[in-house]
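Below is a filled-in request sheet from our internal design queue. Each sheet records the structural input a requester submitted and the sequence that came back. We keep these sheets so that new team members can see what a complete request looks like end to end.

REQUESTER: design group, bay 2
PRIORITY: normal
MODE: inverse folding
CHAIN LENGTH: 224
BACKBONE (tokenized):
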């Protein structure tokens, strides 16, 4: 049955307007995004298929165009729309960080990083450079590939920190494997960067590992 045949109070768009987006399920939110379903399936059914196919919203957000188009009813147009929505969310969160809510709203940092790494199949290392008021100056991807002590050069991070005139840093990298636990190399690297930046009076606030919808904090784990 098409959504237009549903009682008005049960339709996702009308429910969102009346109750707010938090009241909707993932499938219903995707239905609002999709607007229409496919033959034999409503937009809510298609949204449910999307979540089931990719396993989670983060899995959906990380999908390539080919993977996305493998679901009946999806294609380049919807993929482009989804990427635009994700980029708008990234930019909105980045504005919050630039306004100086890095420490007052740490969840915004986590959300920004999760969106940043959402569509990356490779491992990469990102540094957030902050000023003395903890406002975001820049967010730079500095290294790609398997992270080891030898592949991420502390001196390059220090040079960038000085170039940006940063007072503090937040480090982040992703684990495409889905394993959230820090590796021995992650711990060694963090310690090396902590020692190197301390020499120029730049403080590392945290090091986050992003693995899908999970986030590990070195600070919360007592490793900083």
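RETURNED SEQUENCE:
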């Amino acid at each position: 049955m098409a959504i237009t045949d549903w009682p008005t109070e049960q339709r996702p768009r009308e429910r969102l307007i009346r109750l707010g987006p938090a009241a909707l399920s993932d499938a219903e939110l995707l239905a609002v995004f999709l607007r229409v379903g496919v033959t034999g399936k409503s937009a809510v059914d298609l949204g449910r298929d999307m979540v089931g196919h990719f396993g989670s919203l983060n899995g959906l957000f990380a999908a390539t165009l080919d993977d996305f188009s493998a679901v009946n009813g999806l294609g380049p147009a919807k993929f482009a729309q989804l990427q635009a929505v994700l980029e708008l969310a990234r930019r909105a969160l980045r504005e919050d960080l630039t306004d100086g809510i890095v420490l007052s709203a740490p969840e915004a940092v986590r959300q920004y990083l999760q969106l940043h790494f959402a569509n990356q199949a490779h491992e990469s290392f990102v540094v957030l450079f902050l000023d003395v008021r903890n406002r975001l100056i820049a967010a730079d991807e500095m290294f790609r590939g398997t992270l080891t002590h030898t592949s991420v050069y502390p001196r390059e991070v220090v040079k960038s920190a000085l170039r940006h005139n940063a007072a503090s840093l937040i480090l982040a990298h992703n684990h495409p494997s889905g394993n959230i636990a820090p590796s021995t190399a992650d711990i060694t690297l963090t310690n090396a960067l902590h020692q190197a930046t301390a020499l120029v009076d730049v403080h590392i606030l945290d090091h986050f590992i992003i693995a899908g919808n999970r986030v590990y904090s070195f600070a919360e784990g007592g490793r900083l």
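SHEET NOTES:
- The domain at 7-87 is CATH 1.10.150 (DNA polymerase; domain 1).
- The chain has two domains: 7-87, 106-217.
FILED BY: M.R.
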